[in-house]
Amino acid sequence: MPSLAYPVPTDLSPATVKNTASLFRIVTLALISGAAIASRLFSIINYESVIHEFDPWFNYRATRVLAAKGFYEFWNWFDPTAWYPLGRVVGGTVYPGLMATSGVIYYILQALNLPVDIRNICVLLAPGFSALTAWATYMFTKEMKNESAGLLAAAFIGIVPGYISRSVAGSYDNEAIAIFLLMFTFFLWIRALKQGSALYGTIAAVFYFYMVAAWGGYVFITNMIPVHALVLILMGRFSHRLYVAYCSWYAIGTLASMQVPFVGFQPVSTSEHMGALGVFGLLQIVAFIELVRSHVSSQNFQRLLRVFLVATGLLGASAFVFLTYNGKIAPWTGRFYSLWDTGYAKKYIPIIASVSEHQPTAWPSFFMDLQMLIFVFPAGVIMCFRELRDEHLFVIIYSVMASYFAGVMVRLMLTLTPVVCVASAIALSTLLETYINPVEPDAAVEVVEPKQTNGETTAAAAPSTPAGKKAKKPAAAAAAAPTSALSELVAVSSGKKTASSRGIFGLDTRIVVVLNTLWMLFFFVFHCTYVTSTAYSSPSVVLASQGPDGSQHIIDDFREAYYWLRQNTPEDAVVMSWWDYGYQIAGMADRPTLVDNNTWNNTHIATVGKAMSSSEENAYPILRKHDVDYVLVIFGGLIGYSGDDINKFLWMVRIAQGVWPDEIQESNYFTPRGEYRVDDNASKTMRESLMYKMSYYRFADLFGGNQAVDRVRNQQAPKNIELDYLDEAFTSENWIVRIYEVRKEDILGRDLKSANAFEKGKKRKRSKPITSRRRALAA
Amino acid sequence: MFSLRRWCLLALSLAGVLVDAKSSTGDSVLVVVDPAQQDNYSIFFNGLKDQGYELTFRSPKVEKPVIIEDNVSNFAHVILLAPEAKNLGKDITPQSIVELLSLKTNVVVALPTKQSPLHALAAEFSLILPPPGSPLISYSPKRDTPSTLIPISVEDHSSPVLTKHIRPVWFSGIPQALGNNPLLIPILRAPAESFASEVTVTSGSAEALVDAAEKGGEGLWAGSSLSAVTGFQATNGARITFVGGAEVFSDELAQKEAEQYVQSGNIDFVKEVAAWTFQENLVLRIEKVEHHLVNGTEPKETYTINDNVEFSAYISKWNPAKGEWQPYSGLKDLQLEFTMLDPFVRTALPPVNGAPGKYSTAFRAPDRHGVFKFVINHKRKGWSFLESSTTVPVVPPRHDGYPRFLSAAWPYYAGAISTSVAFFLFSTIWLAGEARDSKKGKAAKSE
Amino acid sequence: MKGLFSSLFLCLGLVYAQQDSLKKLTELAAAGNGVIHLDSQSFDLLTSPKRTWSASIQFTALSKNRNCVPCKEFDPAFSTVGKAWSSVQASDRDQHFFATLDFDNAPNVFQKLSLASAPVVFAYPAADGPRKPASGRTAPTKYDFQDGFDAGPLAQHLSKFTPVPIPYKAPIDWAKWFTTAIAIIGVGSFLRLAAPVVFTRWTWAFGSVIVMLIMTGGYMFTRIRGVPYVGRDGNWIAAGFSNQYGQEVHVVAFVYGLLAFSFVMLTLIVPYQTSPAKQRMQVYLWGAVVIIIYSVLVSLFRVKNRGYPYKLLL
Prior knowledge:
The complex is a heterotrimer.
Chain A: H1 14-38, H2 42-46, H3 55-69, H4 71-75, E1 78-79, E2 88-89, H5 97-111, H6 118-144, H7 147-159, H8 161-164, H9 175-195, H10 198-214, H11 218-234, H12 240-257, H13 266-269, H14 274-295, H15 299-325, H16 334-340, H17 344-348, H18 350-354, H19 363-370, H20 373-386, H21 390-408, H22 413-436, H23 448-459, H24 467-472, H25 474-479, H26 485-493, H27 497-500, H28 507-534, E3 543-546, E4 552-555, H29 557-568, E5 574-576, H30 582-589, H31 602-613, H32 616-625, E6 628-634, H33 645-659, H34 684-688, H35 690-696, E7 709-710, E8 715-716, E9 726-731, E10 737-742, H36 752-759, H37 772-778
Parallel strand pairs in A: 5-6
Antiparallel strand pairs in A: 1-2, 3-4, 6-10, 7-8, 9-10
Helix pairs in contact in A: 1-6, 1-7, 3-5, 3-30, 5-6, 6-7, 6-9, 6-22, 7-22, 9-10, 9-12, 10-12, 11-14, 11-21, 12-14, 14-15, 20-22, 21-22, 22-28, 23-26, 29-30, 31-32, 31-33
Chain B: H1 2-17, E1 28-32, H2 42-51, E2 54-58, E3 68-69, E4 72-73, E5 77-80, H3 94-102, E6 106-110, H4 117-124, E7 127-128, E8 136-137, E9 150-152, E10 169-171, E11 177-178, E12 184-189, E13 195-196, H5 206-214, E14 221-222, E15 227-233, E16 239-243, H6 251-255, E17 257-259, E18 262-263, H7 266-277, E19 284-293, E20 303-304, E21 308-319, E22 324-327, E23 335-340, E24 342-348, E25 358-364, E26 370-378, E27 386-395, H8 410-446
Parallel strand pairs in B: 1-2, 1-5, 5-6, 6-16, 20-27
Antiparallel strand pairs in B: 3-4, 7-11, 8-13, 9-10, 12-15, 13-14, 15-16, 17-18, 19-21, 21-22, 21-25, 23-24, 23-26, 26-27
Helix pairs in contact in B: 3-4
Chain C: H1 2-31, E1 35-38, H2 40-46, E2 54-60, H3 69-85, H4 90-93, E3 96-102, H5 107-112, E4 120-124, E5 141-142, H6 151-158, H7 174-198, H8 201-216, H9 219-225, H10 246-269, H11 276-304
Parallel strand pairs in C: 1-3, 2-3
Antiparallel strand pairs in C: 2-4, 4-5
Helix pairs in contact in C: 3-6, 8-10, 10-11
């Protein structure tokens, strides 16, 4: 009898243990899914069932079109109201996966006579898929270590804020389904690699296609898997399993991905995808050489082969470079390139740099999103290094790359989160298994025989193989993936030196560590709940403010203003606003917009920026040329809503400057001291700019005689601003949204400034006729 | 006695001249005139009445009837014939007159010599009036009338407004210098010898000329670049006419001989002016526009790039005599633009012979998708403006709208087909050959 | 007529005046090898409203007692660009002048332009003659140091005002190349010698874990935003949730590393400890480390995120 730290029931039949274990597993998974879905419903409970911030509004609109008109109409959808007057070929410029998914769900429910509103499907899609993500992560981690680790990982991914931030109910964005597809594709890849099965490789390719159709981030997979394969080759771990898995995945996956209209021929023509192609070629060469090697035995011929291998590799690389310079292969796209050269975006593509989720990540947001996992997962990576199987390499590479990307862009935290969950799950489960394992290490070697029986009985737990076999083939035991506590116990009791030489003495130590870990896990749960409920659940369409007495006060200006537009303006009235609000205007107000959040046309956006940042009389021709009827600005000065247009103004100026460097200069908008001010010290250009005037028009009147204060900038707001070319049409309750109507030209052909002066009854100075003599002189 | 005969003659001639002509925008006319002087303009007023206008008279003093009620004008046309009045009542300010125009009410304004609010009004139409109290003066031709009463001879087609021959017109009042506003239409030019200056007790004011000459012509209001009667058509089609002085309308000048035994042209002239201002003459409108594919009839709400589109517009002209709109094919310079931000297509829109009033053209839509507009923008001096804009999106071909089975693509087809065939053959052979293969392998090993 | 003649004379006179002031400037430029060192009246000469030439002027304060660090940083860049400009052929070169104005030589100019800070670079386009810009905008434009004090961007920017682009080439940094070459060779030889060490998995494990820790410590943030290592007021924690200083990277990475390390110890090393007493000691030790460091981390986080409700031991 090995000394056990605490008694273990020895009279359990193998079947019972096996079944209870699997039952527990299923129940736990179900509970985890429940938790994952429930924790994403805060936004509905705190606010209401509404689509969140910006992009989701477009996805929602597109989905409605899909549900109403069917897939082909959606594919051919040309939206004349977006990017007026250029229009947008939506079918060809969108990742249809998300819309297709909810469209299919919608049709199925209709077929089942369940009349569910398409909006609710869209709102609840993300939570639903988060449950699937948990399951996918479970499968993935199971491939890495074992079921228990898988369950831990599933629990983590279920509630970790880093993932919740993009998948709360109502945030109907591509990421909602993309993370599930990411994890599941990776799982299938690992499975295919382990078993060397073309079937799993093909399934992986199919899900890869789904991923491509769903999210631009598929490029991550497209590079992650080849890197994994490449590393395996370099480590001399080439195997036919790898060959089969990769080739089946790449061939089918690439062909499939080229069917997505928005992707088209990129997989064979852009640099992002060249890595995959290169590795594919390399694999062929290596496989060929392996083949020749296995038939030829001459020493120096093999050396020749090596040279050949290296030469071909170099040749391929140089060919790639050559083609890139000839423009046959498009170089890195800006978004992708800015990941490597971090200064690139700000200098050349300000639109990308201006997006808040493209900012670099400071450490607090890492901790906010991942809490304890952030420091547990290095440990997990170490564990992966300990038993360095092929799939562990994947986790290692993934962690290193993803942590770099997450550092560069906040939004890529999303790709880091899954691997963090997996790695820390591995670490924690190893820890717990070590400390829950009841076997004391001082195994008395002389009493091996009687132990056998005990071994037999307890071996029950080991999922499939009876302990006897194990005892004979310890190697097999070690290799077998599931090394649950009880099977280790078996290994120990069957007198394996390796196993018995390690372990924990005493009960207190176990209790200390286990309690410590449990306590951390509990803290983690509290943290996640807190962060989710407070930080990540607000739908930025509806704002909430705490009254002094702690009462919640809902600020609904956006919808108020958008519905005003919908009710009070003609169908074809063109609304100009900064691009952040394009999708919302299209979605809620259903009016044509000049620019929106899919920022495909820099010049058009720069035009809007120019109109906003130049003076009235300069802006007016631009507005008329684009048939603008209404101009919409966001102004937070009254209630201190900091995300307003004055704070984004400098980006408009920069983007406009990029296109018209000699008409718009950023430096003109600063005070001589180089400050960005809105009060009376503001620079002349600033004070005359359209955006400034529209923001502060009649603002001072609110305060009667008192000092008007902008509560975002904490500066005095300017007084008596006059608008000659625009009329104030609407201002929302808290002044967040202000809408102005663009005046038509004067019927007498005067410029509107003097027309206005005449209306106000101002005298204009008498002018004399130009006599013919003077005219002659002048000529 | 003699005068009496002339009276009758005049009456007859009037009767002959008079035809019942209608305005295209309405017959209600408000005349603001000093009741004392009302009879001085009887010929003009009777002429209007006989044309079928309902004249409402209003004294500058009183405020009834009101012109604008709740942003609606009570009258189709307004005549301000009380130039010398201090003010024309509270509700007739320069601002309100501009508002009248914006409500598509047509206005005839007789300008005063003295300073008055109407000067401010004229300035808004970029008319520049001489300093107060300086009427138009001319010493030639030599005549017995005062130098401020000038016979102006009108040559035909000097202005698009004057459609028929006009005998010389007696003018007395102030000239207007024209600013550079394309909407201005000079109707009656001042004679080349005339100039504007203060009238002194002695005949005329040669001094004015002299010291003006000293100043090198500085501020001298002289010559045929000045205009005595000026029309203005606002962009919304409303028309306003500034007449240098009210006397042009007066009976006295109407009956005064221009030359020996030659009746003056004032009657016809004012009639022409009124006819133009009150939207009788040179009034066009676009009845409807339609567009469809060249070999189609139904208008489509979206066109595909490179479609051949046919666009046609129906234009009609107001016939004052009949008082109805009639199809009009007279325009030779009508243009059509197909624009998105900038015109992608600009082509002539010629009249279709055989179809009166129909203008039509066909063109190929540009190879560029977007939201395009069919734009007609026809602005000619004197004529009412023709403006029309029809929005239609031009979309790329549908997914199945592209040509298929190109002969140029056969290499690719062949490649695809051969690959699939090869794959099929390979797999069948391989599957079939499996067993033997392995056996052979065994055999090889055993040996 | 008279007026006409007089004006004609005036023009001619002006032309001559321009001619010789141009000559003077050229000499000055030659003297200061490409960069004119201005005082107040030569400044007025250079920026005269009738100038047919363009100029780029650096306003700086280089004297010791002003101790303006950025001025000293920027000055060499400006002078190198000026030097590069002096190498183009004379016909073009004399169309555009590089000049520098030190505060101590002409404080009144600083007041006139109401310049409160230095260094500042103004580009004066030609106000007259053939090279007057079509837009007619002859007001000087300021160079905003968006791309730092490097000479390359400066030359690129100023080339918009010169008749021909400034032939500025970044000097080849031999030292850099040399060091990299040395490094490569060194690494290569090192690999040869220490191959058995380098190619052990634990070396790689160490390396990758370090990378991960640094990155999750917010290193890229400091790189991209170029934040200082510590704040001006000496404290090393930047206020605000989405902001941090360079030192925080090290501290946070160290804390993470320590916690991860204690986990690794508990999992991998401790179980191999054969003597119960020692093992128990280690278990308690690492447990304590985890608890304490973790609560330190949380309190650190509370500093960054004031609203955070939870706290551990401290």
